[in-house]
Specification:
alpha+beta, 6-stranded antiparallel sheet, Thiol Ester Dehydrase, Chain A
Length: 153
């Protein structure tokens, strides 16, 4: 994609939600399903599988952190042209209660964004609204690559 196409990250996420483009492999592994996609905010559902459990039957924290990252990153992506790249450079997670296999609701939001950096927050809840985990993250925004091979930074 080029900057002249004016395709946004929000357009790409909505196309993935509609099955028009392939869901990224990590999101597919986590059972990603879009519930609400708006500029600067996403609400998605993941399916925590039994294979994600620790020996105590709770979802291992790394999978929960991945779900949070996979909600906050797309929240930022909704505000960018589709050809920009914004990897997470820092993330802090607070685990509030154990999660069990089944649906988990994730929300990601953009707190503040400049041309080169963004501050994000996220949360995971049960379908009943019980808080599972929260997170804050920082992402580095790279300008669209002139060579078409990823980022220019």
């Amino acid at each position: 994609m080029t900057a002249t196409t004016h395709v946004t990250g929000l357009d790409v996420l909505r196309a993935a939600a509609d099955g028009l483009v392939e869901t990224p492999p990590a999101a597919a592994l986590l059972g990603w399903r879009a519930l609400d996609l708006e500029p600067g905010h996403v609400r998605v559902q993941y399916t925590a599988r039994p294979e994600f459990c620790n020996p105590h039957g709770a979802i291992q924290g790394g999978f929960l952190a991945a779900m949070l990252d996979d909600a906050m990153g797309p929240a930022l992506f909704t505000t960018l042209p589709a050809d920009q790249f914004a990897p997470t450079v820092e993330m802090k997670v607070n685990f509030v209660r154990p999660a069990r296999p089944g649906p988990i609701i994730a929300e990601g939001s953009v707190v503040h964004k400049t041309n080169s950096i963004a501050f994000l927050d996220g949360k995971l809840t049960t379908v009943d609204g019980d808080l599972i985990a929260t997170a804050m993250a920082t992402a580095r925004i790279f300008a669209a690559a002139k060579n078409g091979h990823g980022h220019s930074g």
